[in-house]
Design goal:
The complex is a heterodimer of chains A (130) and B (77). Chain A is α/β, with parallel strands linked by helices. Chain A is built from 4 helices and 5 strands. Chain A has helices at residues 29-39, 74-82, 92-97, 114-123, and strands at residues 12-17, 43-48, 87-91, 110-112, 126-129. A 5-stranded parallel sheet of chain A has the order 4-3-2-1-5, sandwiched between helices. In chain A, helix 1 runs parallel beside helix 2. The longest helix of chain A has 11 residues, at 29-39. Chain A starts with 11 loop residues before the first strand and ends with a strand. In chain B, strand 1, helix 1 (18-28) and strand 2 (35-40) form a beta-alpha-beta unit. The longest helix of chain B has 12 residues, at 45-56. Chain B is globular.
Chain lengths: 130, 77
């Protein structure tokens, strides 16, 4: 069973990403901020809902970036965050909305549900949504 | 100005969040009491390092701007 928060850090921040591949300029900022928070020794997770799960598709992460063909691809920002132990969370209805299965997504994405999301939000010190 | 024993981390030209991320990683490699000198050109580095040090309990010793380069001294606690 997936744990909610590990509880081994002083603070917890939960980011919520609702934007997908149609607006690449909005794809990377949650990963920047999550990386910065993780560097502050805070426990961090990003929850992808609505169109957000599109950003975690294996066949997408190297093909889009916040500045299009200029600058780094989305995978660079995802790796930066996950290398600092930022967790990536999705829920089943959002996968269905986007006709996706967990196997379509990059490795390491965790499945949670609506109750778990709400409980994580209530336990977090901050919830930041995009 | 910098103590002789300081480790220098050059983050000039890097944008948020890299100076913060690299500082956090570099500080973990220091022993308590040791100083890290961060060099950065990101204009947000001073408030970022104030927030980072306050949150992590490390000491922000000094922030000095030399031309376009911020020199940030941090002591590992």
């Amino acid at each position: 069973m997936t744990e909610l928060w590990r509880g081994d850090a002083e603070g917890k921040v939960l980011y919520v990403q609702t934007h997908g591949i149609s607006d690449p300029g909005r794809c990377a900022t949650p990963f920047f901020l999550a990386a910065a928070a993780a560097a502050m020794e805070v426990e961090v997770a990003i929850y992808f809902t609505m169109y957000g799960p599109q950003l975690l598709r294996k066949d997408v992460v190297d093909k889009i970036g916040p500045k299009g063909d200029r600058g780094q691809p989305l995978s660079y920002f995802i790796d930066q965050a996950t290398s600092l132990d930022v967790r990536l969370l999705v829920c089943q209805p959002s996968l269905e909305l986007n006709d996706l299965e967990l196997a379509d997504l990059i490795d390491g994405v965790e499945m949670i549900g609506g109750a778990a999301f709400n409980e994580m939000a209530m336990q977090a010190d901050a919830v930041v949504s995009f | 100005m910098s103590p002789d024993s300081s480790t220098v981390l050059d983050c000039t030209g890097m944008q948020c969040p890299l100076p913060v991320v690299k500082t956090a990683q570099a500080m973990k490699r220091l022993e308590p009491g040791e100083i890290l000198e961060l060099l950065a050109t990101d204009p947000g580095v001073e408030p970022d390092m104030k927030a980072w040090s306050s949150r992590t309990g490390n000491e922000l010793v000094e922030v000095r701007k030399d031309g376009d380069v911020f020199h940030v001294l941090l002591r590992r606690t």
